[in-house]
Every structure is written in C-alpha cells, then in structure tokens.
Amino acid sequence: MEMHSTVAELMIFANHWIARYCLDAFPECSCLRRHPAPRSEFFEELKRCASSKGFSMSVDSNRALAASLEACNDTNDPEASFHIHLTPY
C-alpha cells in the first residue's frame, strides 16, 4: 500500500504544478474542478462494512465521505479500519 500512497501523492503534486502552469499561462481565466456529490448507491457495501464495525458512514458530499473515512479508525481492530479504507467504491 505504500506504493499506492506514493503514486497518489505524485499525482497530487503533478496536478498542483499543472494548475500553477495554467494560471501563469492564462491569468485572466480560472479553471475550477467541481466534483459532483457521491452517488449513495455506489457506497452500499462500504456503508455495510463500516456499520458492522460500529462506524457511521455519510456519503452526502465528498467532504462528508472524507470525514467519515477519517473517523473509521479502530485501535482495537486496525485490520478492520484497513479494510474499510480499501473497500472499492
């Protein structure tokens, strides 16, 4: 999983520099990326998994989903926390 994290960080880093380049090249224009709200039906398995360990999962918005995932940390069962974070959605 360390490689996955490294790739994710490199993608964020690349996106940052592409955005900076675009801003420098086109200062009069702004490009904003808008993420649509998550579709709740895509998260049923994740919500069931989290619920089975006593976690509440909100998928009302991307921010709520991120906060819910961040809160899914069980120090008594780190493997369950690990699997919740790896559930494909």
Automatic annotation (TrEMBL):
Coiled coil: none annotated. It holds the Pfam family RNB. SUPFAM superfamilies: Nucleic acid-binding proteins. Residues 3-77 form the RNB domain. InterPro entries: NA-bd_OB-fold, RNase_II/R, RNR_Ribonuclease. One of its GO terms (biological process) is rRNA catabolic process. One of its GO terms (molecular function) is 3'-5'-RNA exonuclease activity. GO terms for cellular component: cytoplasmic exosome (RNase complex). This is DIS3-like exonuclease 1. It comes from Dibothriocephalus latus (Fish tapeworm).
